[in-house]
Sequence to fold (382 residues):
Amino acid sequence: MSVTQRSESAQGGVAIVQATGARLVKEFVELPYRLYGGDPHWIPELRRDAHRRLSPRDNPFWAHAEMALFLATRNGRVCGRIAAIEDHAHNAFHRERLAWFGFFEAQDAATAATLLTAAEEWGRRRGCTALRGPANPSLNESAGLLIDGFDDDPYVLMPHNPSVYASYIEGAGFAKAKDLWAWDIDLTVPLGARIARMAERVRKRHGVTVRRVNMRAYYADLKKMVGVYREAWEQNWGFVPPTDAEMKQLATDLKPIIDPDLVLFAEAAGRTVACVVVLPDVNQVLKRMHGNLFPLGLLHFLNRRKIINRSRLVLLGVIPEYRNLGLYPLMIAEIHQRGVANGYVRGELSWTLEDNDAVNAGIEAAGGRRYKTYRLYEKPLG
Fold:
């Protein structure tokens, strides 16, 4: 990040300052804890984790990306924030010159317009042709603006925002780039008999075995999962292969909350051909911690198994040459059975691309109900 810059806006007396240095970065991190004080569905992440996500030392994403943090102020008080991001890995993989915006918060439309203008100008100076977002800081972490389904708490690693934000962003000239869907599933309802029959047929015909993650060989299994992930998602819109360092850091961060019964691998002919990762919804615990591990947050975390009864399916992938075998129904049947056995009563499958018809149809067949939409916006910088 460069030297602090300050500019005055004609829109509502809003000033923009580029957040450099520990004090301003702290203000950047702290803003949501103040803005969302009255929102019963906002889940405060640990402040420690919010700082780490922005830190090149702690987040390997910044090894291939650059960022500028901007704060909006009015009468000396912070009223908004935005990050402008250029992910060189994305641009190289997709042969684009995109800039991204993320970590967006604004008290009103004038603040939002001023912040988005600052991000546009940052991207334009770098030769980028469009600005897309929100991504916090990438699609591999937390992404999209919630545009419907505001009456439920978000699941782990999913964003939440006021409903008015869509009008702010669209009013600044941004249009829809892609919608991301979240699906709700009631685990107290038995899985359809058709899915169960298909799963049993796959086991018998193709000799596929399913096992849970080996926590004693956690990082060895991580490599197998990453291999499936890269192959299975390579053709997906917006996908960027995560680096080994990114995946290892994410796996390390999630290891304390993982339920081993909910991380499964399918193997055939000695090869890992599919995997599914479901995370206990630690947001149910974070909601009680108010962004702090101490003094009482640690107690809630240690009691998490008594608190958590929801889970989020974050990854279900089958390598391309095995997709015609029926492995999706097999993995869905397995994870549903194990989730119920471990006491989970509700789940979310998120996110899926709105135009991924095969996956979305399979989720519906398994009893999923689409209940939240997250939108990615884009604006040309010509």
